[in-house]
Write a structure and sequence with these properties.
The chain has 266 residues and is mostly beta strands. It contains no helices and 23 strands. The strands form six sheets. Strands 3, 4, 5, 6 and 7 form a five-stranded antiparallel β-sheet that branches. Strands 8-9-10-11 form a four-stranded antiparallel β-sheet, with no helix packed on it. Strands 12-13-14-15 form a four-stranded antiparallel β-sheet, with no helix packed on it. The chain is globular. The two termini are 26 Å apart.
Length: 266
């Protein structure tokens, strides 16, 4: 048991079932999804952890990938589960039934490292070893945009809380911000080199926008972005869009003794 201020953290359970590295986890209501280098996704019932305990669901494991599954994420309502793999496939699942609903691929057929839903569930972002970030229209099940410009594997991405922008991070440490819903040229709105010295592992926006006094002008709007990396640090960036477009480092949090990783759920 550990205490952090008013928060008490205690061990609930150790879950067994995967036969290789667990690469990602994500919660949605009473379901926990886990994925692994063993090519599977497992779903766990966490509705009553202190009573009946955490049990693997009857529709688990989900089978469909041929190689390591790098990332899994639920849509905010929890009705969809996205997974992506070294095999180049992004799969949409129905987590209630375990049914495979749709399969996407980048045009390069390269391995996919990360997948994330937008806050409004309309879009899915996927990034991979072809150094691109692809935005998918979830309803139409078609690629909406392909963002190019990185010169390393896209290892992290996240949407702003209004779903208008998406940030991508790479294994060489760069960060780029893109406009999701625009007919403009598919070039980054702003970028920051060396967001992390040894590569970006994960990133997430705060669900609350920054106040105007943190964005220089009431004609700007801003977001707080947390990133984590192989340099053992967590960094907080102020992302400003409007009259001024910029990604500004506000704070570097030191204390980890190994690679830092992060994920936030709405």
């Amino acid at each position: 048991m550990a205490t952090f201020g008013d928060v008490v953290v205690s061990h609930q359970a150790t879950l067994y079932g995967h036969t290789s590295d667990v690469t990602c986890v994500d919660f949605s209501n009473d379901i926990l999804a886990t994925c692994s280098s063993d090519k599977t996704i497992r779903l766990w019932d966490v509705s009553d952890p202190e009573g009946s305990g955490i049990k693997e669901r009857n529709n688990s494991p989900l089978l469909g990938h041929r190689y390591t599954v790098y990332s899994c994420c639920f849509s905010p309502p929890g009705n969809l589960l996205a997974t992506c793999s070294m095999d180049g496939n992004v799969i949409l699942w129905d987590p209630k039934t375990g049914s495979l609903l749709e399969t996407f691929q980048h045009s390069s057929f390269s391995g996919i490292r990360v997948c994330r839903f937008s806050f409004n569930s309309a879009f899915l972002a996927t990034g991979g070893e072809d150094e691109t970030l692809v935005i998918w229209d979830v309803n139409k099940k078609d690629a909406l945009k392909t963002f190019r410009g990185h010169d390393a594997t896209v290892s992290a991405c996240a949407f702003t809380p209004d779903s208008k922008y998406v940030v991508s991070g790479t294994t060489n440490g760069d960060l780029r911000l893109w406009v999701v819903t625009s007919d403009e040229e598919e070039t980054p709105l702003v970028y920051k080199n060396e967001g992390h010295d040894l590569g970006v592992v994960g990133c997430e926006f705060s669900p609350t926008a920054l106040p105007n006094d943190n964005t220089h002008s009431n004609k700007n709007h801003g977001y707080l972005l947390a990133t984590c990396g192989n340099d053992d640090s967590v960094r907080l960036f102020r992302v400003v869009v409007g009259l001024v477009n910029e990604i500004v480092l506000d704070e570097t949090l030191i204390g980890q003794i190994g690679r830092a990783s992060c994920r936030e759920r709405v």
